[in-house]
Amino acid sequence: MCAQRRDEKRIKKMRASRTCGYGTQGQHRKGGQRGGRGKAGYDKHKWTQIMNENPKYFGKHGFKRPPHLQFKDNIINIGDINEKIPELLADNIATKEGKIINLNLDELGFDKVLGMGKLDYPVSIKAKSFSQKAIEKVINAGGQALKLED
Question: The pTM is what?
Answer without folding.
Answer: 0.53
